[in-house]
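New here. Your pick:
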Amino acid sequence: MRSCLATETRPWVVLGVRDGQGRYLAFLALVFTRFPRSGPQLTSRLALAGSPRADFTGMLGVCGEESQYIPPLANAVATLPWDALDLSDCADPRIVLLVGELARNGYCNDQRASAVCPYADLPSTWEKYLDSRSRATRRTIRWRLRKIESLPSYRLHFASPAEAPNAIESLLRLNSLRWKRDLQESRSTFADLFAQCYELGRFQIASIYEGDDVMASQGSFIEPERHTIVGYMTGYNAEYAHLSPGFILACASIRSAIERGFRRYEFSRGDQTYKLSLATGVRHNANIIVWQRSGRGAALRAATEAAAVVKRTARQLSTSRQLPAQPLGINTPTRVPADTATDLAQTYDRTAT
C-alpha cells in the first residue's frame, strides 16, 4: 500500500480511527477521480486505494473491533466530496459492513458481478502438487515442461534488484504487445510501482529464455508474512506461442515457490482456463458502487447502468454470429439492504474461503 500511494498520481486520503487510548483501530485509504480528466468537472468518484491497479482491495483494521471503527469510517466517508463510491475488486468483508452502514444512512448501492480469483495452496513438494492435479493436467504440465526445458539454451531466471529496471521494461513491453495496450501508458501506470516494490523485496520478475530471447516474463508480488506469492502480470513472445511459454512460466513459478517454502500461490483476478487448471480453489472479489444522495449522483447512477446495458447488448450481438439467436435480457443490479449487511458479510466470508 505504501508503494501504491507513493506512486499514485490522483489525490488520495487515508482515514484513521483511534480508540479511547489513542490506539489506531483501522485505516481506510481512498483515491479521488474526476470526470472528465481535464476541463470543468462534471462528476467525482471515490475509490479504494490501489484501484484499478490492484486486483485485491480492502482496508486495514483490528479483527473483532469492527463495531468500533466501521460507523466512524462511514461517517467520515460521507463528509468527503463524491458522487459515487467505487468499491471494486473488494477482497475484504469489512467493506461490505461499511456499505451496510452507509445504507443505514440512506445511501443507495448496486452490487455488480463478483470476480473469480483462483489460488493454489502449496504442499511441501512439487510432486505432491502435481498429484493434486487431474491426470490430464498432470500429463500436460510434465510434457510441456520437458519440451521447453529441453531447448538447447533454455533457462529460468529471477531478476536481481540490480536487473530490475531492464526486467520491468521487458515485462511491460511483452505484456503490452500481448494485450495490445499502449506501452507508454503501461510505463506510467506500473513502472514506478514495480520498482519501489522491488526495492522493498515485495516484487519479483521471473523470465524464461531461449538464448538471449525472452520467451515470457511474469511479475509477482511477494507477501512474506502470509507466505504467499501473487502472480500479477504476464507477457510472452508471440514467436514462441507454440510452446505455451506463459503457462510454462506459471508452472515454473509455482515449482519455485514450493521450493522456497511458500504456502500459497495467487493467480489474481480472472477465470482463464489455465488458471483454473492449476488452482486448488477459488475466491471471489465483491464489486459494489455506492451512490451519493444528490441529483448528480442519481444522474451518474443512471448513466452508469445505461452504459452497462449497452456493453452487455454489444457483447451479446458480437457473439450472436456464432451462437443461436436468443433474447437480450437486462440484469437488474442486486441491492445491499442495510438490514442484510451482516448476512452478506458472512456469505462473503464463506465464498472467500
The chain is about 40% helix and 25% strand. Residues 321-353 have pLDDT under 50 and may be disordered.
